[in-house]
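quick one, 94 residues, struct below
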Amino acid sequence: MIQGFLNIPYFAWTTISLVIAVIFAYVWPHKAVTASAGFRYFVIRWGHTLTWVLLAISFFLRGINPSLNGIANLIAAAGGLAYLLFMAMTFVVK
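---
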């Protein structure tokens, strides 16, 4: 098993990320979403969950084979961009 961050296997990080994604799929920012519509609603509602799913995919790919680290880095970067968009729509754009 390939050890990841903090010597915890990547598959454990995948599981942790998926648990957080499921939590945010059911426990989400109700107050911020009620006053928004359209694209902003979608990003606020699903942006954080999407971020954790993309991170889980990245961890999973890293755990399968180290040769997939390049693709995993791109997916993790997409997760970072999803999180930045989520933060911008939640706190900056009104």
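The radius of gyration is 15 Å.
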